[in-house]
């Protein structure tokens, strides 16, 4: 008998054949008339040959196409995650085609990839290696019966770049003599529109922990944000500016990189005198504010308001004095009153007390080691950092054995030591180069040696040989210099140095050579100010108490967190103080935790499961990542120019 078939929507049954049935009955009747040796059991066999009726079977044919939808992104959206999300039937297969083309017949040409929805019908696709800009995704679903859905098509814009605050902020970083009615301004670099509803939270200004009230406006054309204080600022005060990521959010919901800097207001309300120490060129009596021709007690003719410093025995062994008389005189005005601002952290537990003259000899002033109070204030040198001049002497004819023929700097030898009567005329010569010892930070540092020369002019090999406790840090920065930068930009164009990629050789020289991602010009060594507070800190080594720009970590290190190490130098035993093993690890891991970022670069996460880390769980980081013959040298190396791990 043929099987019975059933098609969805209609029933078909096989009709009964009456004639065939009668014929069978007749045959059976004929069999009964024939004699046969068959026993009674034959009746049972005959029953087995009788065919039983078959039950009806059913076949379902599904011609309904499956559903599919793209939930994220929507058409025209900005996308910052590089993930496409949607829904479909849970048993279907979703096919996607990125940036495919469609011919005139509507046929999609390109490579399709498959993703499987979960039990709830949700699916997502992580787009590999997609570029910034406009893209189109095609999506279709295929169910188990081979039915194909209609094709969904969405065009969107990939934007994973965070808005950047351009370095040209106002007031400038560390700017002094800022007007009391000034407004704070920043410009934003971003391709997409900003969420103007959040911009009111973008600029936060504070003074001594108290927020300044003001209004915030945004120029959509110039992308400039302006914060205007509701009241005039206080005179002679330091103000801190914080650009919050919560207030600068673009259309793709990327938040801006944070930015921090500070400025100091003018010291007198009239703002008539722009030079904090007066104008020497217009009024020579200004000198009398600090010096006395007849009543002074020391060689610098400082007035009797100060006492002479008590000399330290054997000054060649130290560049410090017990009482820095000139510093006391400076602080008598720089006390935070209307006259002059108090230096930040100058009252901290650990302060910068090295007293060194411009030529490297000990002096009675720590302030004077970095600042030149006789300079006229300028926009390029607002804090009156120490300056110097250099001149390359040409060989004389006839040769004068007493005349130098190499480049000389006033930081090494004062011009007046040879040119007593004509020094002014000599200094004005066109071949004499004038420069300021820079102390560059996030808005200005490119990462070359000269950016940090105010610090490195003392922390170098030469000073180390003069003063046994002076650390040589300069050797960890000398691979990138102004000369190298100039040569690079001659070949590659202006400002190309900051835009270059960090080379393998540079990375091998120092793991702290990075390329900023937050819009800063840094493409080199990290600034000193990222780890050290300038004037002082409650931490030893003047280490900062907050490390990192994003997900900043608190760090504390007291006197008990250090250890003394004895080192033999020039056949003499010298004792140095360095961080203990556990505290050094805590300092490094404050950034190397996989979440804390600096200049938009996230610190590499410390992998505790790494074989070497498991083998030396209590060792300092410098044990493997520092270089040198002693613990002190390794500690300095790992802090300023860490190397790839090397087990000693």
User: How are the strands of the biggest sheet laid out side by side?
Assistant: 4-12-11-6-9
Largest sheet: 5 strands, mixed
Shape: elongated
Total helices: the number is: 14
Number of E-type strands: 33
Percent of residues in β-strands: 15-25%
- Compute the CA-based radius of gyration: 40 Å
Query: What is the helical fraction, as a range of percent?
Result: 10-25%
List segments where confidence is low: pLDDT < 50 over at least 5 consecutive residues: 1-46, 305-322
Span from first to last CA?
89 Å
Written account of the structure:
- The chain is an alpha+beta fold and 648 residues long.
- Among the domains are: 164-264, Immunoglobulin-like (Sandwich); 531-648, no CATH class.
- It is built from 14 helices and 33 strands.
- The strands form twelve sheets. Strands 4-12-11-6-9 form a five-stranded mixed sheet, with no helix packed on it. Strands 13-14-18-17 form a four-stranded antiparallel sheet, with no helix packed on it.
- Strand 25 and strand 26 (523-525) form a beta hairpin.
- The radius of gyration is 40 Å and the shape is elongated.
- It starts with 5 loop residues before the first strand and ends in an 8-residue tail after the last helix.
- Mean pLDDT is 83; it is low at 1-46 and 305-322.
């Amino acid at each position: 008998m043929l099987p019975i078939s059933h098609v969805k929507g209609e029933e078909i049954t096989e009709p009964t054949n009456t004639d065939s049935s009668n014929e069978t009955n007749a045959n059976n009747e004929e069999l009964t008339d024939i004699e046969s040796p068959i026993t009674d059991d034959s009746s049972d066999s005959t029953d087995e040959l009788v065919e039983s009726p078959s039950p009806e079977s059913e076949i379902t044919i599904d011609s309904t196409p499956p559903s599919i939808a793209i939930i994220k992104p929507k058409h025209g959206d900005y996308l910052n995650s590089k993930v496409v999300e949607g829904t479909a039937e849970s048993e279907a297969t979703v096919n996607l085609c990125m940036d495919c083309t469609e011919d005139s017949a509507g046929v999609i040409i390109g490579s399709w990839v498959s993703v499987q929805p979960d039990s709830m019908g949700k699916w997502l696709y992580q787009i590999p290696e997609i570029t910034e800009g406009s893209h189109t995704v095609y999506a279709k679903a295929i169910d188990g019966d081979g039915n194909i859905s209609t094709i969904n098509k969405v065009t969107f814009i990939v934007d994973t770049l965070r808005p950047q605050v351009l370095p040209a902020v106002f007031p400038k970083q560390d700017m002094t003599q800022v007007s009391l009615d000034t407004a704070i301004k920043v410009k934003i670099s971003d391709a997409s529109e900003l969420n103007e509803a959040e911009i009111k939270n973008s600029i936060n200004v504070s003074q001594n922990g108290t927020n300044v009230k003001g209004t915030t406006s945004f120029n959509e054309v110039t992308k400039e944000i302006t914060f205007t204080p509701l009241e005039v600022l206080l005179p002679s005060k330091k103000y801190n500016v914080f650009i919050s990521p919560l207030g600068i959010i673009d259309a793709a919901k990327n938040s801006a990189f944070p930015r921090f800097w500070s400025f100091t207001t003018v010291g007198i309300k009239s703002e008539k005198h722009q030079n904090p120490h007066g104008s020497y060129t217009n009024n020579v009596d200004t000198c009398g504010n600090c010096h006395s021709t007849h009543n002074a007690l020391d060689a610098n003719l400082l007035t009797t308001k100060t006492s002479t410093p008590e000399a330290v025995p054997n000054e060649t062994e130290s560049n410090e004095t017990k009482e820095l008389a000139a510093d006391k005189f400076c602080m008598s005005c720089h006390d935070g009153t209307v006259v002059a601002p108090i230096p930040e952290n100058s009252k901290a537990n650990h302060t910068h007390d090295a007293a060194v003259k411009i030529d490297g000899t000990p002096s009675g002033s720590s302030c004077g080691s970095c600042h030149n109070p006789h300079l006229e204030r300028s926009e390029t040198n607002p804090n009156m950092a120490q300056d110097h001049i250099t001149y390359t002497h040409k060989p004389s004819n006839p040769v004068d054995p007493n005349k130098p023929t190499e480049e000389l700097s006033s930081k090494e030898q004062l011009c007046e030591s040879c040119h007593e009567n004509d020094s002014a005329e000599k200094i004005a010569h066109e071949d004499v180069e004038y420069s300021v010892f820079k102390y560059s930070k996030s808005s200005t540092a490119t990462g070359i040696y000269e950016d940090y020369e105010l610090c490195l002019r003392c922390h170098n090999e030469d000073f180390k040989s003069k003063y046994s406790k002076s650390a040589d840090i300069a050797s960890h920065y000398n691979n990138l210099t102004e000369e190298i930068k100039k040569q690079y930009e001659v070949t590659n164009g202006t400002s190309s140095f900051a835009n270059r990629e960090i080379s393998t050789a540079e990375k091998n020289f120092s793991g702290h050579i990075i390329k900023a991602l937050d819009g800063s010009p840094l493409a080199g060594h990290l600034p000193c100010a990222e780890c050290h507070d300038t004037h002082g800190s409650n931490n030893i080594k003047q280490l900062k108490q907050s490390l990192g720009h994003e997900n900043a970590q608190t760090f504390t290190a007291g006197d008990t967190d250090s250890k003394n190490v004895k080192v033999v130098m020039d056949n003499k035993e010298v004792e140095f103080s360095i961080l203990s093993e556990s505290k050094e690890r805590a300092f490094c891991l404050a950034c190397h935790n996989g979440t804390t970022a600096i200049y938009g670069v996230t610190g590499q996460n410390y992998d505790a499961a790494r074989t070497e880390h498991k083998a030396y769980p209590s060792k300092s980081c410098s044990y493997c990542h520092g270089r040198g013959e002693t613990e002190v040298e390794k500690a300095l190396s790992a802090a300023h120019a860490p190397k790839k791990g090397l087990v000693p």
